[in-house]
Amino acid sequence: MSTNRKKLAFACLAIFMGILFALLSAELGVRLFLPSRGMNPMNYKVTGKGYRAYKPETSFKVVNEAMENIVVSADKRGFRNPEGAELEAEAILLGDSFIAAVNTPDGATLADVLRSAGLKVYNCGIDGAGSFEELAATRDILPLAPKARILILFFYLGNDFRDNYFTIPEALGAAAKEPKKSLTNKVFGRSALFRVLHECLYLFKVWKKGSLDLMESYPLAETMSLMDAPPKEFLLAEKRTAAYLALFKDEARERGVEALVVGIPSKAQTIKNFKAISRFDCDPKAQKLAKTAEKEGFSFDAPDHRLSELCKKANLDYISLLPLFREKQNDGIFYEKDMHWTGKGQAVTASFLMPELLTRMGPSAKTGK
After folding, report:
1. Is residue 38 one of the residues assigned to a domain?
2. Which domain holds residue 159?
3. What is the C-alpha separation between 36 and 39, in angstroms, rounded?
4. What are phi and psi of 9, to 5 degrees?
5. Could you give the number of structural domains in the chain?
6. In a designed cystine with 350, which of 90, 113, 126, 304 is the match (CB 3.0 to 4.6 A)?
7. Half-sphere exposure of 252 (CA within 13 A, CB side)
8. Are both 156 and 255 inside the same structural domain?
């Protein structure tokens, strides 16, 4: 009997060690061969003022699709800037991961290229931020930037409509609280493998009929935005975006600064291909909706046109990057799989915007006078 127990214990130990070895191998494989997007919850802090930022005065590492090792450092406000940049900044850049640009090395981000040309800017971008979160950050950062003259909202046409769908404008003033971390997240939050499996579970939930709001799916939401007659969910997202733009305009006026909106097209909208929508190949519902859109009418220009019209109604100046990106689409401005800008894309955007910013900010923009 004792011998059988030893054999059973040895077998259980062998199975446990085999599973542990497999998990460790998978974790190592994910870390080595899948680029990090920087979206590790361990890198962020909820400020309590309605927005997230990176943990102040910390650094974290990201490996992009080109296998470059990038160190992202946050200032004491929790954004990617040289320390004290807000004190001299004349332009505040608001946006999501395209502006935070964690997959781009220091010196090659949009904010850094503008700085190298002599413009004094503050990068207020954060991965995954929607417009309302960016407005909350604006209200917190702008009083700390006494020389600010212009607020520039970079609106990502791929998913910012979708992000705004989940924010009720009337609740904007409510302070965000530090979310309670589940035991699972506390234990496995640093695991790259855990985050990949979590994303797979998210997609599985989206696939299940009726299990989640359709707008939970990023590929579904972007596909809706391309349709001539989008579903009611997207129309609500558009309505809430209009409410945000009015608040953005009011905030700029009250602070005595200019307001400018820049539309960032997605890779799919740039190259006119549904398959380039992020996660499109993993979402059967988005694929089905795309076929419906092809029958009922759609345009890859639609999100850009919608935002342009909303800005016109809000009396906001709007600059579209869509014509520029279509002209440069074969110049390596996007990564192959990541869907974000490469360093080339950041530089192309900076060169395009530079004359406009110099005109709006005047001679002192480069001379500092």
Report:
1. no
2. 96-120+152-367
3. 8
4. -65, -40
5. 2
6. 113
7. 23
8. yes
First to last CA, the chain: 89
Q: Are 265 and 271 in contact (CB under 8 A)?
A: no
**Distance between CA atoms of 109 and 344, rounded to whole angstroms?**
9
Is 90 exceeded by the pLDDT of residue 39? no
Same domain, 246 and 333: yes
Is 308 domain-assigned?
yes
Residue 44: the pLDDT is: 81
Q: Which amino acid is at 179?
A: P
Sign of the torsion formed by the C-alpha atoms of 182, 187, 188 and 191: positive
The percentage of residues in the chain with a pLDDT greater than 70, rounded to a whole number, is 80
pLDDT in tens, 82-132: 999 999 999 999 999 999 999 999 999 999 999 999 999 999 999 988 898
Q: Of the candidates 96, 91, 83, which has an alpha carbon nearest to the alpha carbon of residue 125?
A: 96
Structural domain contains residue 133: no
Task: Using a cut of 0.85, tell me whether the model's pTM lies above it.
Answer: no
Which residues, in sequence order, are CB contacts of 23 under 8 Å at separation 6+?
193
User: How many Cα atoms are found within 13 Å in the side-chain-facing hemisphere of 148?
Assistant: 29
Q: Are residues 21 and 159 in the same domain?
A: no
Residue 158 has which token pair? Answer: 């791929």
